[in-house]
């Protein structure tokens, strides 16, 4: 147990970092709380004085004073006149962390034997935990801090924290959603895609993946066949397999999903018609009508993933759902590609009967998405912030897409990209024998982050010559030098500028 004047140990306990996103005061409070709850400070032991601790941490004495005062107010510390600050003994009445289990306690549980399905065996997502620190993050699905509407988002959160607003969202809504958010989705988001729905035909989800998991849990079972694009969205593939579904791959060409190859015995069809994942090609008008006709003829349900459909294209197409007259298209939407991927906010549009069942299912899973987040997003939409953000993002992404296409043509001329407009990435096919996994490792060593394309294929052996380059998180001025570095990693000497 450290003594009061054991400065080395105290400095170790109260380690702070200027690179942290939190204030110095908050870091000090966190360190003290952790030390108290982990039983590293006894109730009888005084903490270092504010002056001594401030000197050891290299912070202003006032910062430590404020931290100590707040911990006193919260009941973690007791201030004793002329003696200093001590741990409140009442805090230590909670049970301490148990000691590690000994081998004598019996046989360990075999969790693998108990599991009903192998979720951990499914293909893992492309993880780039330090992408924001890389020089050239061609990462898909992340945001650009420079484009994030910080002031507007803070405004909406402040409004959501007003006393009257708290009364609206703090209660347990059981299976309901924020009515203002439903109204805004109905009035602001869906009409952009040509979709008009009643409030009872919309449910809020924790992102598009949560939406797909709910649909799979409710509608799919072992042996049910699901037709999917090949290449296609790998996490949707895994979600459907976890539900026991049998997957039927359907090829994709320059016009999108090849509808003539759809199996007639498939019960569900999963598609990304606005921008196919990952090639970005849109489903042609002719094939959209053919898809709907085949689904009606074969009594099939279509799950439409409109994951980035809020962005403005040069030649936009309305959602497949907008053409649906028989109620067999389930539309899944997301705000990840516009507002923020970490917010985890999505929605499903479907017939009221199905939405009612999804609400009943969701109640057993999570009751409802956090109501404070729902209200903040609703305010963000109602104040026009999202509309302005969409225009700003669409313009920025269009400029980045053009710059990226030009850079690839200049420095990687042997790589072919799909001819598309819109979206937040481009899909590249390398020369025969290209190994994009090896290229990704070589590029990462040059601070260039790319995504190998083999994970989007279900067939074996998986093609190795494809890759995806995202544009949502890389600044415009970094695109060309990033592709130069990628060309160097690929073994080509970039041409002179």
Walk me through the structure:
By secondary structure, the chain is of the alpha/beta class. The chain has three domains: 7-93, Orthogonal Bundle (Arc Repressor Mutant, subunit A), CATH 1.10.10.10; 128-143 and 388-489, Aspartate Aminotransferase, domain 1; 150-382, Aspartate Aminotransferase, domain 2 (3-Layer(aba) Sandwich). The protein contains 16 helices and 16 strands. It has helices at 7-13, 24-37, 50-57, 61-73, 111-114, 150-160, 163-169, 179-189, 207-219, 234-242, 285-297, 352-365, 371-382, 385-411, 436-444, 476-489, and strands at 77-80, 84-87, 136-137, 202-205, 225-230, 246-253, 256-257, 268-271, 301-306, 329-334, 346-349, 416-417, 425-429, 448-449, 451-452, 466-470. The longest helix is centred in the last third of the chain and has 27 residues, at 385-411.
